[in-house]
Amino acid sequence: MVSGVFVGTAIINMYAELGEMDNAERQLAEMGKKASDISWNALIAGYVRNEKTKEAMEAFHKMIKNDTACNEFTFSNILKACSSLPSLATCEQIHSRVIKVAIEANMHVGSSLIEAYANCGSLGRCRAGIQSDYRPRCGNM
């Protein structure tokens, strides 16, 4: 397998599109420290697309453990996974990380937060998000 960041990430994405998540994870492991946030996001998004919620959460925790920076793509994907669990505690933990990196108002993250809280049965948090806290703002895409 190829270990350059650009090509390696493209290979992760290819395997994910084919549903071959074991090969996608193997590619990321081969990339080692060269793997970027984009590489990790491709893996997490692949797990989410292939309805492998547990594996998406595990990859997210590994990403954090490797000190790879999380961004709006990371959070919107992992919040989609939270919507599938549904676990209010997990959703709140992810939300706290979103607040820490100050991307709550990002359109995709805000929408994913609202969806995750709704699926977790926390309609109060969902309503609060729609009304003010993390309502997506067009200027923060």
TrEMBL record:
Record InterPro entries: PPR_At4g14850-like_plant, PPR_rpt, TPR-like_helical_dom_sf
Could you state one GO biological process linked to this protein?
RNA modification
The PPR repeat boundaries are 36-70
Which superkingdom heads the taxonomic lineage of this protein's source? Eukaryota
| Pfam families in the record | PPR, PPR_2
Which GO terms of the molecular function aspect are on file? RNA binding
Alphabetically sorted, this entry's keywords are: Repeat
PANTHER family named in the record = PENTATRICOPEPTIDE REPEAT-CONTAINING PROTEIN, TETRATRICOPEPTIDE-LIKE HELICAL DOMAIN-CONTAINING PROTEIN-RELATED
Q: What is this protein called?
A: Pentatricopeptide repeat-containing protein
